[in-house]
Amino acid sequence: MVEEVPAPHLFRRLFHLASPVFLLYYWIPEDLGSTGIRREALLLLAVGTVLAVDVARIALRIPVFGLRKYEAGRVSAYAWGTLGLALGFAFFPPVLVIPAFCGMAWIDPLCAWARRTGRYPWVPAIGYGAVFASLLGIPGSGLNPLEIAALTAIATPVALLAEYPDVRVVDDDFLMTIVSLIALWPLLAPITALL
Question: pTM above the 0.70 mark?
Fold first, then answer.
């Protein structure tokens, strides 16, 4: 018998899985031609819009399809995820942002399933490691297999530890991305220098 998944839950999961589409930001030209508008201005506009809509939603108590009940009076997971990705775009190298964000987007839903089925933390750890290593190893990353293995070995437990606690003040969509980036960025140059 197949378990029926409620529509809001399914929507949240599908949004999570599709959210790496926002990484198309890296294909936006730095300078948008004769307009004088820079790519960073579009990023600020997008983040400001998401946060303004979320603040209005909270202030006006507007129910939004797909949000959990406990998000009604706090910043939504969508807004936290947007903020985490925007900070990644602004302050961290793409070689780390892409695998860290995709790891959050694809493995966070897997963590919830693994907890329900008794497969936590091993299945999410294997999944995160596979996603992170495969995206870190894309052509042009400039990293060799030992560097990829070392960064993946650090990123996987850091991301899962950031996801694990039930912190209602800051969403794990933010934590899985930002904590991983903060842990990895200072190590990127030393690891590549050592290996």
Answer: yes
